[in-house]
Model the fold of this input.
Amino acid sequence: MSDEQELARLASEIAREAGELARVRRAQGVHLAATKSSIADIVTAADREVEELIRARLAEQRPGDGFLGEESGADSGESGITWVVDPIDGTVNYAYGIPSYCVSIAAVQGGADPESWHALAGAVFSPAIGELFSAARGHGAWNGDHRLSVTAETPAGALLATGFGYDPATHDGDLSTVRRVMPMARDLRRAGAAALDLAYVAAGRLDGYFERGLKPWDFAAGSLLVQEAGGVVSRSDVDSARPLIIAGSAAVHDRLRELIGDES
Ligand code: IPD
Ligand code: CA
Done:
């Protein structure tokens, strides 16, 4: 097993355990712990508990590595590897009882800044559905033991997905981006968990995905899944506060980039 595959194995094992904890806590009832960037941007007690579990498992098994988590922030390590973690991506779905939420864990070479890193391995686990997506650089992307591949053709137009940030002031701009891409779309989905959107692009369940303002933990594992499934992911920070991520097959990615342009 290569180092990347060993990191993917560990990410998968921990994502499963963490996802199971999230699922059990969901069944017991959701407790809001705080709000963050806006009143719509919530944190549940489970987000914090699940991140603590992931952090503890990584500290046991990879004590020299760094950590960057949505809920508990960054710690630098000495090994050059950083774990980038979203304990529950799709927290609003989780709070409302919609099954589209997941645990996302990536191991990257480099520090906490996505500009500086190179993803080595990742896992996205969807506890309500029971699917585990994983990738190791150079070894493909997988749903369990099924190898993933992005869609090749979109004769009826592309099935696209996107997301909107929590700040209502950004909604007009995001909606005008949607208007620009609709000419290439057969339809548009907004399922509410960026890491799952990216996993579904890797799996060919979506043809393309774009979103502004994602945080590193939202896309670290999912971007590697798309790349290892033969797709392209790009990040542009013309609007440095809300960088734009675009993912899909090369053809869908390039067309999305052309339609969206560099406007912010
Ligand atoms: C959010 C989800 C959502 C996306 C937001 C993210 P969170 O992450 O991924 O789909 O549109 O931009 O912040 O808050 O549920 O971890
Ligand atoms: Ca989250």
The chain has two domains: 3-147, 158-260. The mean pLDDT is 95. Residues 3-147 form a domain with the Fructose-1,6-Bisphosphatase; Chain A, domain 1 fold (CATH 3.30.540.10).
